[in-house]
Amino acid sequence: MDSRGIRIAGLVALSALLLTGCSMASGGSDSGTSEPDIGMEAPADGGGVAPRDEQPFTEDEQAGSIEEDQDVIKTGWMAITVDDPIDSAAEVAALVDAADGRIDSRNETPGTETQQARATLVVRIPADRFDDVLADLRELGEVDSVQLDSTDVSQQRRDLDSRIESLQTSVDRLRSLLAEADDVGDLIAIESELTTRQSELDALTAQRDALVDQVDYSTLTVELLSEGLAPEAGPNDFWSGVVAGWNALVGFVSGLLVLIGVMLPWLALLAVLAAIVVGIIVLATRGGRGPRGGAPKTDGEGDRPA
């Protein structure tokens, strides 16, 4: 390899070292940076501490800034009993749309005489509007159960950002080397490394974007149920008992008549088949009987021996 090829190879190795140095620097920046003395102010006479009301940040402001830096994924599940789940599902969709959210899935099952009506929606709500929409959903009916979960992914977000930044720096450097290289071997080596780094960068970017979407839009599953079917009230006095018994008897007789009507054609067919079988048996029995045997008839002067 000539001197120019050696120089290009050295530049590639240098870019790898720069990538490693950026990763180490981003990982150690949090631990190596000292926290500033918030609220401390040097007076004009050179000593002492500034009064509390002169501090630039209050404790509430500090807590608020910390909460804003956190990335939290919120998920939840809510079951509500409503009068009409189908109509309530439309109301849920309207509430989510008003909050600039979206609906990922929606399933509706109309009610029947034996089955409750129900609807299930999986909605995505902006994180800053999640509590407001949750309060509005509670007004739709009787809340049966609620489950809310929160997951802090701040560290994961920072790690992804750091790795993406380092890879982007490496990709930019490799593109510069690719523009300067004129040897075919060097071009192939740089392009191969550039393709690998770019693929890693795209994968990490997609992972970071999916994580950001989960943070920005909270996920809530809303299950809407109708009230259970009420059982019929039983008799509570003598006459209502008589009526209930008569209705039961009429129902039994009606069912029995229906059963007889269904079985009548089959009974007729079985009767015909039975008559045929009996006829065959009778004919076979009569045909098997022969004339009764007896002594042969002879005249009075039968053969006598001489």
Automatic annotation (TrEMBL):
PROSITE patterns hit by this protein: PROKAR_LIPOPROTEIN
Pfam families for the chain: DUF4349 (PF14257)
Domain DUF4349: from-to ranges: 71-277
Residue stretches spanning the membrane: 266-284
Biased composition (Acidic residues): 56-65
Protein origin, superkingdom: Bacteria
Signal peptide (from-to): 1-25
InterPro entries found in the cross-reference section: DUF4349
UniProt key word Signal: yes
UniProt keyword list: Coiled coil, Membrane, Signal, Transmembrane, Transmembrane helix
Presence of the UniProt keyword Transmembrane helix in the record: yes
Disordered: annotated span: 26-65
Coiled-coil boundaries: 157-184
Protein name: DUF4349 domain-containing protein
Provenance organism: Agromyces luteolus
